[in-house]
Each structure stands twice: as C-alpha cells, then as structure tokens.
Amino acid sequence: MNRSPERFSASRRQPLLTGLLLWVLLVSRAVVALGQTEGQMEKVVITSLNQKTGIQALENGELQVNVSPQDARTFKKRGWVRYGDFGARGDGKTDDIDAIAGTHAFANQQGLPVKADGGATYYIGGKERTAVIRTNTDFGTAAFIIDDTEVQNRNASVFMVSSGLQPFPLKGITSLKRNQEKIDVSLPGPCLVTVTNAAVKHYIRFGLNQNNGAAQTDIFLVDKNGRVDRGAPIIWDFDQITDISALPIDEKPLTITGGRFTTIANRAESKYTYYNRNIAIKRSNVVVDGLEHRITGEGDHGAPYGGFLNIRDCGYVTVRNAVLTGHKTYSTIGAAGKPVSMGTYDLSANRALNVSFINCRQTNDINDRTYWGILGSNYCKNMLYDGCVFSRFDAHMGVANATIRNSTLGHMGINAIGSGTLTVENSTIRGGNLVNLRSDYGSTWQGDFIIRNCVFVPSGGRPASASLIGGSNSGQHDFGYICYMPERILIENLHIDDSSHPANYGGPAIFANMNPQLTDDSFREKFPYVTTREVVLRKVTTASGKPLRVSDNTFMFRNVKVVAEAN
Q: What is the pLDDT of residue 567?
C-alpha cells in the first residue's frame, strides 16, 4: 500500500585559511529554520567563527550556533554529527533541547545525518524549542525524557520532521468532481493537493461532542501532468473552491531509527487543551523504525495528548517496529454540557496519504479500558495496520481505504467512517463490534467491507449480545453528507467467540439495531440512511453454536440480500 514516489556569538573573527574562505562565507550566513508551531518561525543563526563550537540561546528566542572551521572539516569528513558535538550533556538532568536543535540545524544546512550519543539520556524540559529534522537521524539506544509538567507552549513539538519543499497555490481550478481523473495543471513533479470549500460543512458532529462541522476538505495525489492517483481519488464534489494548494513530494526517503522516549505527563486541568509535545512528521517519504515511547506520571487528572507521533499533510509514511503507549483516559464537560471522556492519542494522522504501521505494539494492556485507544485520524487515505497489537484503529473525519491485517485490536476495536474498501484479514478483534461505524459522524461508509480469516471476540470476552457491524443513525440529523452503510460486505472464514453471552442471547447479528425507531413504513427519515445492498457469508462459525442472523431490527434490514455460500 505504501508505494514510494518516483541547516556563540563571538567577540571577533580570526583569520582563516584561504582555502576555507568560500566555505566560511557560505556557512556564516544566517539560517532560518521552520519553527515549532504553524504560523511561527524560529530563527537559527549559524556561524563559522574560529572559536569553540557551541550553542547560545538569546533572550528573543534566537538560537546561535557556531561551528569552528576545524570541527566543520571533522564533521564533514566523518559524515555525520552527534548531539555531544554541540554540547549536549546527556546526563538526564541538564536540559539538552538547545544543543539538540542546534545539531539538527547544522546537519540540515550541510546535509549530514545526525546520531545520538550511545548511552546518553537527554532531558528535555518545557522550553519552547523545536528541533527540525531534515536529514536521516539515528536516535539509537539513547533515552529522551520529555518533561511536560511545566511547559511554555503545549503546541510546540519537540521534533519536527520537515521538508525543504514548500507548498504553493494552484491557480485557475474553480471546481472538482468526485473521482475526477485529471486536473488542469503542470507541476514540477508528484504533489499532494489539498483543497477546501469553506462554503460547505461536512462532519457536523452529533452527540456529547457536537459541533457545527468542518469545511469541506480533500487531499489527493497527482503526478506532474495533473493525473490523479486512482489509489487515492478525489472523494467529494467541489462546486466551488476557496483554497487549493500543492505540496511537492520528497523523492528521497528520510529515515529515523531507534530512540527510547519517555513523557512525564502534564498535570493540567482535564479539558480539551491538547498537548502536542511530540515528533511531528510533515514531510513525505519518511520511515520511522524501532522507536519506543512510554508515559509516566499520570495522575487523577490531566489534559489530553494529540499524538506522540503526529503525521500531518504528507504521504508515504511508514512506522515499523515501534513500541507505543496508550494514555490514561480523563473526562471533562463536552459541548452538550454533559460529562464526556476525552480522546487522547499516542498516534495521530491528519490529511495524510499512504500511512502504514507495521509490526507495532503498545506497552499497556490493549484490553484495559482505563487507557484510551491509541490512534486517531482525520482526512486520511490508504491507512494500514500490519502485524500490530493495538487497542484500536480509528478514523474520525473519514478515511478512504483502510487495511488491517495480521493484527490484534483490543477493547476499542475498529472505529471508522469513510469510503472505498475496508479490509480486515488474519486478525483478532476484541471490541464491542467487529467494525463500529462511528455514530457521531453518521455511521457512514460509502464502499465495501472485506473480512477474511478473522476471529471476533465480542467485548473482549465479557458477556455481550454480539453484532458484527455496529453504529447508529436516527435519520434526523444532518451530518453534511448522505450517510451510507457499506454497499457490499464479504465475510469469509470468520469465527465468533461468543462463548460468554447473556442468558437471553439469540445468537450474533450481522447488524446492530442502527435505528430502533425505524420499525415500519410510518417512520420518516429527514436524512435517509442508505442500507447495505448485499452480504456474502462464507464459513462463519460461532462458539455458542447459534447461527448468525441479520439484526434485531428486521424491518430496517429487510431489503438486504444475504447470500450464504457453501463452505
């Protein structure tokens, strides 16, 4: 699914060798690196004075990095730089964020990889400073302690994986159609295109976290001639466009390896003030391999987290062999004025294409309900879990095409709305449903489900009346779009472990009772919910011995064609 596409103050200067003059003139210029928060720039000035290599942070927030000519020659000959070269102590007590950020600034300027010092423990306090990564980085076995107990800016990422390529507006495109094959542009190479129509609202949320929706948004991939990648198509009709831009895709992969990160959790008030003290990935064609993240210091209250790995506005990102941690669930008062559990994440993906998580797991029990589900995503396409052991998969404001294979999902299971094909194969699902279509966004999926070679353990083995497809839609709320159930569902070689069930259990149902009010022709849906056309069953078995049935609500699903093929 992930297809890779074809940068000390000093009292005075000292004379330098003539052969170094041109190099010094180049390096002595001020370098401005992307800062930690959107709309804010962080200034890094790099000099090459004939003095000791070091870092100085000024009162205005500017970071000055001096690299002596001799050290510069050594670094370039060696072929990489390390945090210790720029003064990082790595003793677990001294705040090393300035040295870390300065190391990356120099490495970015010179195109050099970065390595952490073996055996070091880097303490990162609450200072507002972001290390911008634009070259391969090996964190190795080094430890990083991120202390969130006193933070200057909760939205300041600790690391930002950034591209040197910049987005640019697209002119002359005034409308788009769903599944349009080409847009009329000529580009420098493959690009991600993000488009918005602020005049149309989608995802008008229902329930305790109700809201007025978000501007119609899409992100898709085009080649240099404007041809749209069929694997990540345009999914909405845009009658008008208020903003459209293209971001070139980095062709060369950037790799980040290793690292043992520990977050000392914030102790802020439990409300929706998300902390983003994380590794933000805003560059395409990135591989993160072998990273570990743990959490300590969680108490009886705290603000939620927006994802330690936060993947945004990019494509072709692979996270493999990662060990992550679910966050403790805290509650607050939601938009409807009632208590609500706050979503809090160690993984987050927003406006991202072709994102894969391979052979990843979490440190805490995937069935422990005191911890929130580990992933949240919005506006993504082609997401993959392969060989993962996580508490859940989740798509809030839509995913186009998702695959879960060779994986085990815990108490929150699979939660999704979206379009395209949802494929679940060779996996064990321990949620309340095999797939839960999120009711706060209309329980909508415009496309197909394919479920093969899976085991479903309803509610993790607690007594429950099992249903494979869960959700709810009253037909009375406008979500900003037509809501669909998957048009066709193929279920092949599924075992339902419903051995723990209530006394009045009638056997597992294909569909939950999506609308208890819809029991006869007298009910009127203001906003019709389009039900499934066909379900194909091949070799479905149950531990209870009870046969699979359609639903408690036989009227709602009366027109669904169920084909039970021979085993």
A: 60
Model confidence at 28, pLDDT cuts 50, 70, 90, reads: very low
Q: Residue 132's pLDDT is what?
A: 97
Give the pLDDT confidence of 318-356 residue by residue, as tens digits.
999 999 999 999 999 999 999 999 999 999 999 999 999
Where does residue 169 rank: exposed (0-12), middle (13-18), buried (19+ CB within 10 A)? exposed
CA–CA gap between residue 428 and residue 389 (Å, rounded):
10
304: β partners: none
pLDDT in tens, 367-378: 999 999 999 999
Query: Under a CB-based contact definition with an 8 Å cutoff, are residues 374 and 326 in contact?
Result: yes
Phi, psi of 111 (to 5 degrees): 70, 35
Q: Strand 509-511 relative to strand 467-470: parallel, antiparallel, unpaired?
A: parallel
Whether 162 and 44 have beta carbons less than 8 Å apart is answered as: no
Q: If you write DSSP's letter for every residue of 502-551 in order, what string do you get? A: -TT----EEE--S-TT-SSTT---SS-EEPPSEEEEEEEEESS-PPPBS-
Q: How far apart are the C-alpha atoms of 233 and 226, rounded to whole Å?
A: 12
Beta bridge partners of residue 50, listed in sequence order: none
* Residue 292 region by backbone torsions, left for phi larger than 0, else alpha for psi between -120 and 50, else beta: beta
Q: Which pLDDT belongs to residue 6? A: 37
Contacts of 25 (CB under 8 A, 6+ apart): none
Distance CA 547, CA 561 (A): 17
Q: What is the pTM of this model?
A: 0.92
Look up tokens 């952490």; give the residue.
116
Going from N- to C-terminal start, the domains of the chain cover 18-162, 168-248
The distance of Cα 96 from the centroid of its chain, to the nearest Å, equals 27
The pLDDT value recorded for residue 565 is 85
Question: Mean pLDDT across the stretch 96-124?
Answer: 97
Spatial distance between the Cα atoms of 133 and 104, rounded to a whole number of angstroms? 6
Looking at residue 126, what DSSP letter applies? S
Place of tokens 């998300």: 274
When pLDDT is averaged across residues 96-103 and rounded to a whole number, the result is 97
